[in-house]
Design brief:
The chain is built from 13 helices and six strands. By secondary structure, it is of the alpha+beta class. The chain has a four-stranded antiparallel β-sheet with strand order 1-2-3-4. A two-stranded antiparallel ribbon has the order 5-6. Residues 1-32, 336-372 are annotated as: Disordered.
Length: 372
């Protein structure tokens, strides 16, 4: 019995000690929580804790997450329908390209002096008509042999070359030694892939006889993909260029501007004699456009520089297709470039205005905040 009494006393003492320890912890916790500095630190930590959408969704019950997964599956089906939509858009582009072509053929004739526009075809009302009339009156007052002048000018001189010079994206590619070649450029055409063929488009650069190469047409084909990626279907935003192919330029002897010849001295290790060798190395030129970087078919990734070069190439091809070829005369006169510049300026103006509004709101908050 004595042993049992001792055991009970020991248990009672342990319970009492545990209660005392618990009471001390509670008191200590109360004291800590009443400390303003501790409370402020905890609040700051809570404020800085970022709640991402994914972490928020993870808190849902399994039944809700199951429904969300079903919505994602519907979204993938929507992406595939969107891909079909863009395929039909491509078919429409092909159809309307055939309707545009007779107009573009007539444009080529006027540019190259193969035909003269009639009075009706050349009648155009200009916004600066009064100024042009005054300039015309002054011109008539000057004695010049207009007939002789007219017969010496054929078509519209340097039409496509002027466009290259006017558009920054293209002028950056053109070297001084490219210029005399581009002056032989007579037309640029866009051709769409045939029905049933993989989606693509080709650019055709038509050249007149020249001293540089024997090709009459240089081509560049851009291959496109219009289907959601199996590993990332939600990234689909429409057709994208995935690869491109150029063509072989048949350069005449000594006229290849895409390479340059350099002289290099070599010293023999044993005899110490020096010899001079000539070597051809790549040269900057617009005509490298027809020898693009190939996208690796074995899944190997390109280095950063190659990826940048390829992305720029795709952008240029798209710009030729969407802007230059359909609106060539406006890029020749510079009107399309002015429109592009105005659009960019408007965007910048809106950004500046929004930034100003945000700054104003911050200042307002600072004035009303009692802590400041």
């Amino acid at each position: 019995m004595a042993d049992n009494s001792k055991t009970e006393d020991t248990a009672s003492d342990s319970l009492e000690a545990a209660k005392n320890a618990s009471n001390k912890k509670e008191k200590l916790a109360d004291q800590v929580m009443q400390n303003p500095q501790v409370l402020a630190a905890l609040q700051e930590r809570l404020d800085n804790t970022s709640v991402t959408p994914s972490s928020y969704i993870e808190t849902f019950p399994k039944a809700v997450i199951r429904r969300i997964d079903a919505l994602k599956k519907l979204q993938v089906k929507c992406a595939h329908i969107e891909a079909k939509f863009y395929e039909e858009v491509h078919d429409l582009e092909r159809k309307y390209a055939a309707l545009y072509q007779p107009l573009f053929d007539k444009r080529r004739e006027f540019i190259n002096g193969e035909a003269e526009p009639t009075d009706a075809e050349s009648e155009w009302h200009s916004e600066n008509e009064d100024e042009e009339k005054l300039a015309g009156d002054l011109k008539n007052a000057v004695v010049i042999d207009e007939k002789a002048e007219d017969t010496n000018v054929k078509g519209i001189p340097d039409f496509w070359f002027t466009i290259f010079r006017n558009v920054d994206m293209l002028s950056e590619l053109v070297q001084e030694y490219d210029e005399p070649i581009l002056k032989h450029l007579q037309d640029i055409k866009v051709k769409f892939s045939e029905p049933g063929q993989p989606m693509s488009f080709s650019l055709e650069f038509h050249f007149g006889p020249n001293d540089y190469f024997s090709n009459s047409v240089l081509t560049k084909t851009y291959k496109m993909k219009s289907e959601p990626d199996k590993t990332d279907p939600f990234s689909f935003e429409g057709p994208e260029i995935v690869d491109c192919e150029g063509c072989t330029i048949d350069w005449k002897k000594g006229k290849n501007v895409t390479v340059k010849t350099i002289k290099k001295k070599q010293k023999h290790k044993g005899r110490g004699t020096v010899r001079t060798i000539t070597k051809q190395v790549p040269n900057d030129s617009f005509f490298n456009f027809f020898s693009p970087i190939k996208v690796s078919g074995d899944g190997e990734s390109l280095d950063e520089d190659s990826e940048f070069t390829l992305a720029a190439d795709f952008e240029i091809g798209h710009f030729f297709r969407e802007r230059i070829v359909p609106r060539a005369v406006l890029y020749f006169t510079g009107e399309a470039i002015e429109d592009d510049d105005n659009f960019e300026e408007d965007e910048e103006g809106e950004e500046e205005e929004l930034e100003g509004e945000e700054e104003g709101e911050e200042e307002e908050d600072a004035e009303t905040d009692p802590k400041v």
